[in-house]
Design a protein that fits this description.
Chain lengths: ~325, ~450
């Protein structure tokens, strides 16, 4: 019995966005079908993993996450270098955790100097992720934008509350922007329209739908991403035809389940493997929902997901 | 594939006798189409019409039940490709593999893990459903022996796997009353399986080397009157297995292609030898349309994330999970421990309780029923305001649990502190952080 394989009718395509510059620049996007539905369309650029680096030594990471970086944890430059040389990172995501006004509240200039040093030490694309506090992000990211003006950074997050100011920085210094909206397809679209009206060119925009991990609302992010892809690919919604980034590892490793020891809860098994799997499985689910860039932490989780991407896309 | 009222009407006896409860056959047909009547209410409908109507009204993906009684496991019945369109209906079954040539200690350890590895979450118990018993030895007696052992030790759903149809038949005789799933009908043993299941009914896996072959086999089996089928597409690499799952679901839903209108079974361990990778593959099938996922082994570190992912993906998007109203003890609180209050959106509960645990400060967490809304939304909707929080606190027995009178409310409900101090005059209202992540820092400064 010959099966007539059903095929989705697609009318749109995800835009191709190039991150960074030079020989290590990375292009993402370009899909013409639902994520990894390679029997229906093409995926000219494989989804990429950006390795996470913090701008100060984290004090709340579980042992398993800390271990691979123990020797570089106090030095963001060495940390980023290690990610590239030891773990083959193709993109680095520097999380500016130090600037949180409720936390360490490092001042803008000091924070920006750290970004500059990391940026100077790398030839792979660098994502700089702020703290989602509008005033502080504007202050810090403006300094970062200026200091690293010829670097083609990728700056996040840009939200409805600060898009004008951060958008202006990106336009002035030619950085790529990550437009963040709170798990809502309409808000994602609206922010992209606002940024477009402001003059941010289409080739400098990436969507951050705001994601959560397994056990903490994964399903919301999953469905919003599926809807964004559906609108972009089958309903010609041009304002949603952008690559998607998922800043997921931070969410995973701060959860209780990633921190519990085996002694505290024998039913939950080996703590290190559990953390790695929570990260890798959360990332994999987001990959199936449409992630083009996954921000990840543990080298073993990264290896699992990277291999899975290769296996799902092999010919 | 619902029929229209007119199409149904054509199949009715047209006597207009009214015995079905409505005056005319047409009215009855309209009610049937709307799902407001049962065909059995008409005593005169012909057998042939009955068969046609049943066929037409059958769900596009058949619901198959394995096992009986309380732990009967139901799979299939899906109606959408994307969960936001409606919801996913029946979560995939997670099965543990046990081979009949494993030694006794190993089998016992596996059975123990099958029982122990379960988890409480949002008032639900997350646990695996099935054990797949494989006749690896090829020996009839060994197969029967291990089936008996597992049968008496667990009320789980059972999958019987053997390449030898006689052994499968012997296995089925031992546990027929448990309604096990038989693995598998293939091109080579089709007639034997038909004869076996005709005699002793049981659901059957259909295994082909590709989807065309599967469709052929299911067509032959349904023609023989065997309808409780599950599909193994035979894929041995993740890429093809992933694509097969999508094509099967889409053919059934979008093309109404009956021969593939059945749930599936997958074996990630056939696609990789690495247990970590196996877990990742299993997680792919949880999201993308697996019906039964058989795992080579169970370990807490992989089973737990998998079961929670399944819970997440199969949550009804229209009805977020809510936590039951009440007072929850985090850690080992005593009469000096802090009391916090929050809404009953399950995510809120998880985050807040998780952060309290991280703080290592034992506490009482009061969860107010806000109809599953988060603090911010509930507050805006008037469901988490002084007028409803105060009576909840008064009626609770938190009075007896602590000697102090300090209540920590979420930062997002800060505007309620005045109202609460008025309505709970004995209590001092403390405003907690807006972001749960700051709870540990907040609790560090706690003094009763
Ligand atoms: S009982 Fe049957 S025949 Fe009589 S009116 Fe109803 S549908 Fe028609």
């Amino acid at each position: 019995m010959a099966l007539d394989i059903p095929r989705t009718t697609y009318s749109g395509k995800i835009k191709e966005i190039t991150l960074g510059k030079g020989s290590k620049a990375v292009t993402v996007g370009g899909e013409t079908s639902y994520p990894l539905y390679l029997f229906e369309g093409t995926m000219p650029h494989l989804p990429r993993i950006a390795m996470e680096v913090w701008d100060y030594a984290p004090d709340d990471w579980p042992e398993a996450a800390l271990e691979p970086f123990a020797d570089v944890i106090n030095d963001p430059v060495a940390w980023a270098r290690k990610c590239v040389s030891n773990y083959g990172a193709e993109i680095i995501c520097l999380q500016l955790m130090s600037i949180d006004p409720n936390g360490m509240s490092r001042d803008a200039d000091e924070a920006a100097q750290v970004v500059k040093k990391v940026s100077d030490a790398l030839d792979v694309p660098l994502i700089v992720w702020g703290t989602a506090n509008h005033d502080k992000d504007v202050e810090v990211l403006r300094r970062v934008g200026e200091l690293c003006q010829d670097k083609n950074l990728i700056i996040a997050p840009v939200e409805e509350g600060d898009y004008k100011k951060i958008g202006a920085i990106a336009i002035a210094y030619k950085h790529t922007l990550i437009a963040s909206s709170p798990i809502d397809i309409n808000l994602a679209k609206q922010l992209n329209i606002l940024l477009g009206n402001l003059g941010v060119p289409d080739n400098l925009l990436i969507i951050d739908p705001t994601v959560s991990c397994i056990g903490y609302g994964l399903e919301y992010a999953y469905s919003v991403m599926e809807r964004i892809r559906m609108a972009a690919l089958t309903q010609q919604d041009e304002k949603l035809q952008f690559p998607i980034i998922c800043n997921i590892s931070k969410e995973v490793w701060k959860s209780k389940e990633a921190k519990l020891t085996k002694e505290e809860n024998p039913e939950m098994g080996d703590a290190k493997k559990r953390g790695i799997l929570l990260e890798a499985m959360s990332a994999t689910a987001l990959l199936l929902a449409g992630a083009d860039i996954l921000v990840m932490r543990h080298p073993d989780a990264i290896k699992l997901v990277r291999e899975t991407i290769t296996e799902l896309t092999s010919v | 594939m619902a029929l229209t009222g007119i199409a149904i009407f054509k199949l009715l006896p047209k006597k207009n006798c009214g015995e079905c409860g409505v005056p005319t056959c047409l009215a009855f047909a309209m009610n049937l189409a709307a799902g407001k009547a049962e065909l059995s209410a008409c005593p005169y409908v012909s057998e042939e019409a009955k068969a046609q109507l049943q066929e037409a009204s059958a769900p596009p993906i058949r619901i198959v039940t394995i096992g009986t009684g309380e732990r009967a496991f139901k799979v299939g019945g899906e109606t959408v490709m994307f969960r936001h369109e409606k919801r996913f209906e029946n979560p995939p079954g997670i099965a543990l593999l046990i081979k009949d040539n494993m030694d006794n200690t190993e089998v016992d350890a596996r059975l123990a893990r099958f029982k122990q590895l379960q988890y409480e979450r949002v008032g639900l118990t997350l646990r695996p459903e099935l054990i797949a018993i494989k006749n690896e030895s090829g020996d009839n007696g060994k197969f029967v022996e291990i089936i008996n052992k597992i049968k008496s030790s667990s009320d789980c759903g059972i999958i019987l796997m053997s390449d030898n149809t006689d052994n499968l038949a012997a296995g089925l005789q031992v546990c027929a009353e448990r309604k096990p799933l038989l693995y598998a009908a293939t091109n080579d043993n089709l007639q034997k399986i038909i004869d076996l299941v005709k005699k002793t009914p049981a659901p059957v896996v259909v295994k082909g080397s590709n989807l065309d072959e599967v469709a052929d086999l299911t067509t032959k089996l349904t023609a023989a009157g065997i309808n409780d089928l599950i599909i193994d597409s035979g894929a041995k690499e993740i890429k093809r297995a992933f694509e097969d799952q999508i094509i099967i679901r889409s053919a059934a839903l979008n093309k109404k292609f009956r021969p593939l209108g059945f749930p599936t079974i997958v074996f990630p361990f056939d696609m990789t030898a690495d247990p970590m990778k196996e877990a990742i593959y299993a997680s792919i099938f949880v999201a993308k349309y697996g019906g039964i996922i058989v795992l080579s082994d169970f370990q807490g570190e992989s089973l737990f994330p998998l079961l929670v992912e399944r819970l997440n993906i199969y949550t009804d998007p229209q009805r977020p999970l809510a936590t039951t109203e009440g007072i929850y003890e985090i850690g080992k609180p005593d009469d000096k421990s802090p009391v916090l209050i929050t809404s009953n959106f399950s995510l809120t509960y998880f985050l807040v309780s998780g952060y309290i645990e991280t703080s290592k400060v034992s506490a009482y967490l009061m969860v107010k029923d806000t109809e599953g809304l988060s603090v911010m939304t509930a507050w805006a909707a008037g469901k988490f305001v002084a007028d409803v929080i105060a009576p909840f606190v008064k009626k609770s027995n938190v009075w007896e649990k602590v000697t102090h009178r300090k209540l920590i409310i979420p930062g997002y409900a800060a505007a309620e502190s005045g109202g609460l101090e008025e309505e709970l005059p004995d209590w001092q209202i403390l405003i907690g952080p807006r972001d749960g992540a700051h709870i540990p820092a907040f609790l560090k400064n706690w003094k009763a």
